[in-house]
Amino acid sequence: MIKAKARAIFLGCLLLCGATNATAQNGQAGGYEVDVLIDVSGSMKRNDPGNKRISAVKLLINLLPDGTRAAIWLFAQNTHLLLKTAAVDKQWKQRALVLADKIHSRGLLTDIEGAIQTVLREDIAPGSSNNLILLTDGRVDISDDIMQSAESRQRVISDLIPVLQRQRIKVHTIALSDQADRELLDKLSFGTGGWAEALESAEQLQKTLLTMFNKALPQDTVPIKDNRFLIDDAVKEFSLLVFKKAGAAPTRLIGPNGEKLSRQTRRKKLSWVHDQHYDLITVQQPRVGLWRIEAEVDPDNQVMVMTDLKLQASDLAAHIVEGEELELTAYLTEQGEVIRRDDFLQLINIVLLHVDEMNGKSEVALQRGQDGLFKHSFGAALGKGRHTLKIVADGKSFRRKLLKTIDIVESVLTVHRFVDADRRAVVLELQPNDKIIDPAMLAAQAIVNVADKPAETIAMQKQQGRLRLSLDWPAKGEKIIVNFAVMAKKLDGTPMTPSLKPVIIDEPALQSRHPPDAALAAVAPPERNEEADALSSHRRDYVNGGADKIVGSGHTIEESHADASETTRQGEWTLLIGLVAGGNLLLLGGAFLGYRLIRKRTTNKHAQLLGRLK
Question: Which keywords does this Swiss-Prot/TrEMBL entry list (predicted)?
Fold first, then answer.
């Protein structure tokens, strides 16, 4: 293994304290790529004893629109390609459904870094609609040496996230147990604009993968009300997903003409995928009119349609800072062109159904402008937490629906940016929220990434309670991505490692001269502050060249040993947290010593404690 270069104690303390059926398509599937990484480590025997991952992945496979590029990977100590990347078609789905049965729980380790690195190196092509869905029940675990796992975890944060950002890959993460490294998974999703979910049990997997599917591949849908939905003559095909509870009666679908369709119905233009927990029904060239579902009402049921008449809306970031003004714009398109005809738009009513984290509901009509755009401004009214936005267009003879979910996060730090044109420099400034953070207990480093050059880590300088960094003006056509690693303490003394959105500096950004107090972005604290969270001041282009790592040896492949080793390593993580709890005081006091020294001392204490326990 290439040994880590000497790091300041700032880095060491951060490391140690952080603590079959063609689904109705949206017409844009060909521009999307989805890679799915499934954890098959031994702990899944405990957290997914019924291997619900198989049925959940099969649902995702069936939902994928034709033309989407997709691949499925399994990872534990190594990463294996279950099905190579290809454009989804009937043959791809048939093979994928067979291979999904190979999902197991026999792996010994959990190499999240190696899994993401493998996908980046061998699979994902550059593009604007790339998505990576990561499902795991554990934390980075590549060796019996806890420090090697901690370093691997840090490389995910400091090295891989910038690469994912540059390649515009959104990472959507699913934590399948309370043992999962929620902080790391949150950082992956937050830093790349993806979505994160945490499950209490594997029983929730199917609906959670549906959420990730909708995030990665937004679909044209029509609303369902009281188990009824309206199909118009612009719909060429629809796919109805109906979730079922155990012991539920067989699902039936009633057409506008009263015809009853069931799993036993044989029609050339009807396909029916049946699972213990859901039915997926696809109808080509469907009859126009009101369709009815004979099944128990479930709010997660949905009707996806293939149509040229679409409801579209402005992109909303997955994570939005509390107090930030938010405006939603919706519009209808026909064959890709915005519909602006007044005689048509006069018949259209677009409403927004808002559901907050406490299940509070409200409804408001979007206001139509003369340009064919319907708008609604939230101002700064949305409170902290997750919000569901259902946008429904009613044109009397047709209906369309869009579903968006956003996470409103607490403002702990604000990033200000202003341009010094005379010095051809860009100044970034971190301002703490002094109602939450003690300004005297704040330290940060900026990780500056420019194209394919090695990343540079720069300590930010404190000035009057704020942290500042001056960067050279980017060259023409150049884009600078700045990530931050922050250590802070709340006013009550609780340590925290806030996550910031990356700051992008390019020519368009320089054209806007922000005054020093203009907020550019803000951050949210992770809900947890568990183990190993660090920065690496030395970067390697290891995505292409490979990172040297030592993988634990001396294990057998027998399943019975996997859980025992993982349980032991989980205990080591807990010990490590306790061993380094005092390290934050050194960091926040501003002392800077070599990282190797802190690692050596910590490792020795760690070994001594483990020895006493044996």
Answer: Membrane, Signal, Transmembrane, Transmembrane helix
- Global pTM? 0.78
Rounded to 5 degrees, φ, ψ at 118 are -65, -45
Residue type for position 614: K
Pairing of strands 196-198, 169-175: parallel
Q: Could you tell me the CA-to-CA distances from 614 to 327, 387, 609 in Å, in that order?
A: 59, 49, 9
Torsion of CA 139, 602, 484, 387, to 10 degrees: 40
Q: How confident is the chain (614 residues) per 10-residue block, as mean pLDDT?
A: 37 35 45 93 95 96 94 96 92 96 96 96 72 95 92 92 92 95 94 94 94 94 98 98 94 97 94 95 98 97 97 92 88 95 94 93 93 89 91 96 93 87 87 88 91 86 90 86 91 85 81 46 38 34 39 30 43 42 38 38 44 37
pLDDT score at 382? 86
Q: State the pairing for strand pair 289-294/278-284.
A: unpaired
Query: What is the per-residue pLDDT for 82?
Result: 94
| Residue at 338: amino acid letter | V
Has domain 413-524 been given CATH number 2.60.40.10? yes
**Superfamily holding 20-216:** von Willebrand factor, type A domain (3.40.50.410)
State the pLDDT at residue 125. 66
- pLDDT the model gives residue 553: 29
Structure-token pair, residue 422 = 């005379």
Closest C-alpha to 110, from 84, 79, 145: 79
Give the pLDDT confidence score for residue 588 in this predicted structure: 40
User: What torsion, rounded to 10 degrees, do the Cα atoms 147, 150, 151, 156 define?
Assistant: 170
The DSSP annotation for 410-473 comes to: --SEEEEEEEETTTTEEEEEEEE-TTTEEEEEEEEEEEEEETTSPPEEEEPEEETTEEEEEEEP
Beta strands in 141-287 (DSSP E): 169-175, 196-198, 221-222, 228-231, 235-243, 252-254, 260-261, 270-274, 278-284
**Which of the following CATH numbers is that of domain 225-300: 2.40.128, 2.60.40, 2.40.10, 1.20.272?**
2.60.40
Q: Quick check: 561 and 555 in contact, CB under 8 A? A: yes
Q: Are strands 319-321 and 309-313 parallel, antiparallel or unpaired?
A: unpaired
